[in-house]
Automatic annotation (TrEMBL):
InterPro entries per UniProt: GT87
Family: Belongs to the glycosyltransferase 87 family.
Compartments, as annotated in UniProt: Cell membrane
Main location (coarse class): membrane
GO MF annotation list: glycosyltransferase activity
Membrane topology summary: Multi-pass membrane protein
Keyword Lipoprotein found: no
Keyword Membrane: yes
Region of interest (Disordered), ranges: 397-431
Enzyme class, first EC level, given as a word: transferase
Signal peptide: none
The protein, known as: Glycosyltransferase family 87 protein
Entry EC no(s): 2.4.-.-
């Protein structure tokens, strides 16, 4: 029987089982989201105004003259973005949109491989199909394809920037984020990270590329001044539709202005503390954890506190979520993942039985998700700091010299995240 057992019960490792299960499922999800849902489209069409602006640019017509008082998607890219998007209008809108969907899927798949590589997993690892399965099960990726917008390329540029920055390819690291900012300035807050990490040369290309593209595009556009006088002021307004920021959510539900302001100040304060704590205790000891978590805090704060925060922006938080594999991650607690569910779920909460209640849940889930994620990260870091203060170990031995990495903080939380073992380890090193 012992001899027969190896034939009757062949053994398979965990690393083989996970890909075997998730690769076929992930491939079919990619097919369904792109070929079926994305090609079908929806009443919201982010591609149409971009294609129309590109067509008007190529024909020498005004680009920024649309009526901004409607609730339809508007063209909001700067002149540099118009220049980069112009090739889309060389062919007819339907085929152009299909090509854009294909390129978006390629960008998302490439992002999955880059994310795995950033965190030290090979392209053949079981982690890649897990990432792809998670990507295409979310609202953020699904609606990016269905609405056909630029977010897939934003994620790809962000991950390329982070990977090159970690490898100290500073000038090259500025190229992908510079190209993204030239089209969609949503990643501008991340330029703080190379500044804090003393990688000044990243900023040369990150700022230089959009600057040069705008200089080139400015005389080629029929109405560049309208971008400054009409579009930029509109970008600063907190509209009350398709807006999950605190200000947009408050405007829709009629929340008092003083409470909206108080909430915005509170989340900025949480972000400042989180960025300070990560910079002080993790930048030199666990650079990847510092970079990925700080980027998540900066972007989540921008989504909440800025004038416009849309649910599909949440895909830019994928590197933050991936830190759950790292000791010391702020994602190793259930409230953080409840927040992730809120801002990334593809579930709809409209109810025919409880109409008002379902509507409230549906329209608030993204805002609550971002908020809970920020609060969970803030509390995780705050409790660590309070424990360290209690035990008198708030100073790093490498502070004076500015170079030595303290192994205590990278050894933290190997038993699951936010327990006291990490503090005890720090205390042992300090003694």
């Amino acid at each position: 029987m012992a001899i027969l057992d190896r034939y009757l019960h062949p053994q398979m490792t965990f690393e083989r089982i996970i890909p075997m299960v998730l690769w076929p499922i992930s491939i079919m999800m990619i097919f369904q989201r792109s070929v079926i849902l994305a090609v079908n489209g929806d009443r919201t069409d982010d591609f149409r105004p971009v294609y129309q602006a590109a067509l008007q640019f190529l024909n020498g017509q005004p680009v920024y003259a649309e009526n901004l008082d409607t609730v339809d998607p508007h063209y909001l890219y700067p002149p540099s973005g118009t220049l980069l998007m112009a090739p889309m209008a060389v062919i007819d809108p339907e085929r152009s949109r299909w090509i854009f969907i294909v390129l978006s899927v390629v960008a998302l798949v490439a992002s999955a491989f880059l994310l795995a590589k950033l965190f030290g997993f090979s392209a053949r690892s079981w982690v890649v199909p897990v990432i792809l399965f998670f990507f295409f099960s979310t609202e953020t990726v699904s609606h990016t394809l269905i609405f056909t917008n630029f977010n897939s390329f934003v994620l790809l540029g962000m991950l390329a920037f982070m990977l090159l920055m970690m490898r100290r390819r500073d000038l090259w690291a500025g190229v992908p984020i510079g190209l993204v900012v030239a089209v969609k300035p949503v990643l501008i807050p991340l330029l703080l990270l190379p500044l804090l990490n003393r990688q000044w040369r990243v900023l040369i290309t990150a700022i230089g590329i959009p600057l040069i593209l705008n200089i080139v595009a400015w005389p080629l556009i029929a109405d560049p001044g309208s971008f400054v006088t009409r579009t930029v002021p509109y970008l600063g307004e907190a509209r009350d539709y398709y807006n999950s920021s605190i200000a947009g959510n408050g405007a829709y539900f009629g929340v008092a202005d003083w409470l909206v302001l108080l909430l915005r100040i509170a989340f900025v304060a949480m972000a400042i503390f989180g960025l300070w704590f990560l910079y002080r205790y993790y930048r030199r000891t666990d650079e990847l954890l510092w970079l990925a978590t700080s980027s998540g805090i900066l972007l989540a704060t921008q989504f909440l506190v800025g004038a416009l925060g849309q649910g599909y922006y949440s895909m830019l938080l994928f590197p933050l979520l991936m830190t759950v594999f790292l000791p010391g991650s702020t994602m190793r607690n259930w409230p953080a993942w409840l927040g992730v569910y809120g801002c990334m779920t593809f579930d709809a909460y409209y109810s025919e039985e409880w109409i008002a209640f379902g509507r409230m849940l549906e329209y608030n889930k993204v805002t609550w998700g971002w908020s809970l994620l920020m609060i969970a990260m803030f509390c995780s870091l705050l409790f660590r700091y309070l424990d360290m203060r209690r035990d008198g170990v708030t100073s790093l031995s490498g502070d004076a010299g500015g170079g030595a990495a303290d192994p205590a903080l990278t050894d933290r939380s190997r038993d699951g995240g936010d327990g006291g073992d990490g503090v005890d380890a720090v205390a042992t090193v300090e003694k």
